[in-house]
Hints:
Elements: E1 9-11, H1 24-30, E2 48-54, H2 73-80, E3 82-89, H3 95-104, H4 108-111, E4 119-120, H5 128-134, E5 138-142, E6 160-162, E7 177-178, E8 183-184, H6 194-207, E9 213-219, H7 232-235, H8 240-261, E10 268-272, H9 293-296, E11 297-298, E12 300-303, E13 311-318, H10 322-329, E14 365-369, H11 371-376, E15 381-386, E16 389-393, E17 398-401, H12 419-432, E18 441-442, H13 472-486, H14 490-503, H15 508-520, H16 524-536, H17 544-556, H18 560-573, H19 579-590, H20 594-607, H21 612-627
Helix pairs in contact: 6-8, 13-14, 13-15, 14-15, 15-16, 15-17, 16-17, 17-18, 17-19, 18-19, 19-20, 20-21
Amino acid sequence: xxxxxxxxxxxxxxxxxxxxLAMAAWALFRGPGRGPRGAMGDGGGPRTIVxxxxxxxxxxxxxCYGGKSAATPVADRLAARGTLFREAYCAAPLTRPSITSLxxxxxxxxxxxxxxxxxxxGDEVPTAVERLAAAGYACGAFVSGEPxxxxxxxxxxxxxxxxxxxxxxxxxxxxxxxxxxxxxxNVTLRERLGERTVAAALExxxxxxxxxxxxxxxxxxxxxxxxxxxxxGVRYAGSPYAGEVAYAxxxxxxxxxxxxxAGRGDALVLxxxxxxxxxGEHREDTHGYFLYETTVRVPLxxxxxxxxxxxxxxxxxxxxxxxxxxxxxxxAEPLPATDGGSLAVLLAPDSPSSPSAAGxxxxxxxxxxxxxxHRFGWAALEGVRAGAWKLVEAPRPELYEIPADPDEARDxxxxxxxxxxxxxxxxxxxxxxxxxxxxxxxxxxxxxxxPYGAFVRSGAAPASGRxxxxxxxxxxxxxxxxxEAGAGRHPEALDAFQAVLEEDPxxxxxxxxxxxxxxxxxxxxxxxxxxxxVLAEGADPGNPEAERGLATCLRRLGRPAExxxxxxxxxxxxxxxxxxLAGIAGLRVDEGRLEEAQGLLERALxxxxxxxxxxxxxxSVRRLRTAGDRLPGARPR
Length: 637
């Protein structure tokens, strides 16, 4: 049996046609002397382009950005021989929507992916990788964390998409610090060590031939829980996040050294992050909840032949600018429409060093967070960084003058003297806010309790209007409850969830996790009652986690007919969701009807190709059939 969560390297064919030239900046860039040129591939762009995404990396923890907590010599050398953008912003402080924006050049309102779970990029939305593949690049992706596995919908254009996440790193268990609050992490995401991801990328690069290559290498290590291997884990024992940052930096060095040894030392390298980390500032332990600089400002470094050395670019830029930039550097066809603009002109040694010179965009950065809206039914957050001002639009808006107040310690929104600035920032937000675009395709919610907390289907639960930024204490209580539940300390977990519900009775995630905890503790009747309350009282009708939890209770209570009726209703309501089929397959296994179970799991996998849990379940059923085994007490059919 493969390790839990393991999946194969996925060969993926490039899809889609090539759009006509659509941006005036494209013609400008292609002109003589515009932009950097390295070792040329067949299409005129650099022969090797490497995009390194270090998950959960705060810009201010790199030495080249003034950080002193960790040694980051590799990133610092890249900055010394390349261009550093001082104020780069992600679109959302969550991995899947942020990287989807990076690869499409679109904000979440346009590409439709707002969360790490429950949504995937629809096939109708073009990506920069498809354009690179059409331009002759062999494209390989090597990811290290669950939010970017193949269910994210980002595989198009890649010749290989390697998301073998369970290899080489068992899920961290109790004792590893999860966020600034320091509680033990027991609810974790599938991941693999950065060094193993780098090794896989280098192996593929060596075998892909001498032609043009685009490598996407995603390192998950700085993500909580913080548990860097030696020597960084030992050296930074008192500052484990810094240890993860230092380890990731070493992994980037191994990647670049390996490429140099393989004759690709002239690669054009872009290094960035999907988002930052709260580390307790503004009462945010990790990320996703708020829109402060700690989590939405990211590093962005570009280095390679023809890139200006030692340049520091002032003013806001965005991760939605990366896709247009990559395509401009590669001399590939641009995407038909983006919310970003190419930064390529800023990289040439003779170019100006302000973002306004890079194109018509004023580089206002749109920001959003729907994490608390999706889980707790609270208000969604939107924001904008435009010029000197940063606005977070919420039930109680916040306004900061970032150059004068980089730590966002002084909220100016209520000051009479800042009324004009507030009005201007709101106008900038309205202008930066893209119109609705493609609808996100649904992606499966994980089979077990979601490590992200119970996911509330968008629009299904009544919004309470609670301001997330006024409710950090409830977020910490909820996260502590999940940690206690994961450690098997069920009474402590229930106490934490109850404390949340005393103040916020409509909190769906706390209600669902109360039911999960009762079920884990063996209180099946209590869990059944709680699951039914969530589904019946309108808190979140059709909540998939509550439905699956209830079906599990009914199955364990010896009421399989009720469980199947519930799963059949869920299948009819959400035909794109594979988990009702997987649940019915489990009932068939109980009955010894293995051929039917196999057929149901095969159908589920057609809905979510390559999903590791479904794949492992299917392989288990096939082995049972081959061996002729039957579960004790099962009735062969």
